[in-house]
Amino acid sequence: MAVGSYQKCKQYIESHRQSEEPPVKRKVYPCITITRETGAGVMSVCKELIKLLEAISQEDGIHWTYFDRKLILKVLEDHNLPQQLREFMPEDKTNYLKSIVYEILGIHPSQLTLLYKTTETVVQLARMGKSIIVGRGSNITTAKLKNTFHVRLVAPIEQRIQHVMEFSNLSKSDAYTFIKKEDAARRKYLKSNYSGDVRDPHLYHLIINTGMFSYKEAAQVIVNTLIDKFPGIFMEEVLTEFFS
User: CATH fold of 32-227, please?
Assistant: First the structure.
């Protein structure tokens, strides 16, 4: 699954490069950023989102694509960094002093350098449009772009535990521990790197409780709001059939 998703990410980049060869003007589609509570079903929602968005978007050779932690691979590929450096970029690793020492010794680039390159790539993907970026502070780094739409997914803890148990084949206690660790790491990542609170509702256009919506319904809510937020972007002849 990871390899297939990464191939889609590469195809997305290549499609944009090819589309820019002849200087033709095309629509600038939105970019959706998503933050989530662990176990709120972000991958399932993204899959439903892409199905809906593909159905109402112009066929221009570029497909809607989502980028999550595999975005790390994209950053490393773009900047010719060794694959071994992935271990230095998890969301809860922010030991700047150690990373700076390692950079001086020539072991690997500093955490700040990697953060800069991650941010640079996130902004680039957002500007391209037809992208769904999960995590990595994307809602903050792209906040000033006019084509971005920021979503947060939440759900009751019991439902999230059940989802993680099924998805990762963990016991209930292990799933709970995993959720607490992941959520804490994401809060720390955003606070340490961007001085933001991932739970701040003012950072989002839309907050959805997937405990009250199915994943498909959640995707539908996002798309409906997106259509209203960006009028004239999606194909009008398809929208009539889409809402009928």
Answer: Rossmann fold (3.40.50)
> Rounded to whole angstroms, how far apart are CA atoms 38 and 17?
34
For the four alpha carbons of 128, 134, 136 and 141, in that order, the dihedral sign comes to positive
The whole-angstrom distance between residue 166's C-alpha and the CA centroid of its chain comes to 22
Q: Give yes or no for a contact between 31 and 128, defined as CB atoms under 8 angstroms apart.
A: yes
- The predicted model scores a pTM of 0.76
Q: Give 150's strand partners.
A: 33
SS3 of 45-78:
HHHHHHHHHHHHCCCCCCCCEEECCCHHHHHHHH
For the chain, what is the mean pLDDT? 78
Asked if pLDDT for residue 83 goes beyond 50, the answer is: no
Q: What is the pLDDT of residues 11-66, one digit of tens each?
A: 776 676 555 544 455 678 899 999 999 999 999 999 999 999 988 888 877 888 88
Of all helices (H) and strands (E), which one includes residue 180? helix 172-194
Give the total residue count for the chain.
244
Q: Are 118 and 136 in contact (CB under 8 A)?
A: yes
Predicted confidence (pLDDT) at residue 3 exceeds the cutoff of 50: no
